[in-house]
Known about the structure:
It is a single chain. This protein has about 240 residues and is α/β, with parallel strands linked by helices. Helix content is about 45%, strand content about 15%. It folds into two domains: about 1-175, Rossmann fold (3-Layer(aba) Sandwich), CATH 3.40.50.360; about 180-240, no CATH class. It has helices spanning about 15-25, 35-40, 50, 60-70, 90-95, 100-105, 125-135, 155-175, 180-195, 200-210, 225-240, and strands spanning about 1-5, 30-35, 75-80, 110-120, 140-150. Strand 4 (about 110-120), helix 7 and strand 5 (about 140-150) form a beta-alpha-beta unit. Helix 1 packs across helix 8 (about 155-175) and helix 9 (about 180-195) crosses helix 11. It starts with a strand and ends with a helix. It binds flavin mononucleotide. Flavin mononucleotide (FMN) binds near residues 81 and 120.
Amino acid sequence: xxxxxxxxxxxxxxxxxxxxxxxxxxxxxxxxxxxxxxxxxxxxxxxxxxxxxxxxxxxxxxxxxxxxxxxxxxxxxxxxxxxxxxxxxxxxxxxxxxxxxxxxxxxxxxxxxxxxxxxxxxxxxxxxxxxxxxxxxxxxxxxxxxxxxxxxxxxxxxxxxxxxxxxxxxxxxxxxxxxxxxxxxxxxxxxxxxxxxxxxxxxxxxxxxxxxxxxxxxxxxxxxxxxxxxxxxxxxxxxxxxx
Length: 243
Ligand SMILES: Cc1cc2nc3c(=O)[nH]c(=O)nc-3n(C[C@H](O)[C@H](O)[C@H](O)COP(=O)(O)O)c2cc1C
């Protein structure tokens, strides 16, 4: 299996220690993207990625290789400490550069592990935010390991073992999970927007090129009859709202 680790900490210490323990339970090759070293300029809000296409981002030379590595990987690990009750600016800046993925999700076959450390507070909220971001990218299943170090040097190894083993087994199985209802709603929102009278051209091209406009969800992911029906009804409603 191939794993890519996006390290959102400027250093390799507390969060990295947790990643190292998790790695012990994962079989395969690992590649680390140490965001600190990538020196990605700040997102300048040009909207190019969203409106014109991600290849028009002025920092595409930095972003595309990272996205490509995530596409090649079977499992994505996002590691980040809590900074001022949020993710680090390093990780947020990377996420800002992936805003187009909210419109044009591409990671439906990927599973992810989120690793968050903190001194005292904020770890659950930060992990939840990263989880939400990944789900907007289309990621099929997100596992979370969080830990508040307090005055301790060692993380909760038992918890790391338990969750990372589940993650590794799931990645190895290649089996995709059914989406949550919320994931289906977002799929239908973007589909309805791509089919609207005034679409963002880059979105429209993506949804048509990948033949997603005729699907109830990403075709790799199987929907049960209830979710299929839910998607169809949701799309009909959204189509009326988004014209
Ligand atoms: C700039 C900065 C902001 C931080 N903000 C918080 C915070 O809001 N809440 C908290 O409990 N810990 C906070 N911490 C502590 C780190 O989250 C904690 O030490 C973490 O384990 C560091 O991980 P790392 O060694 O992987 O960088 C902060 C640390 C720094 C340097």
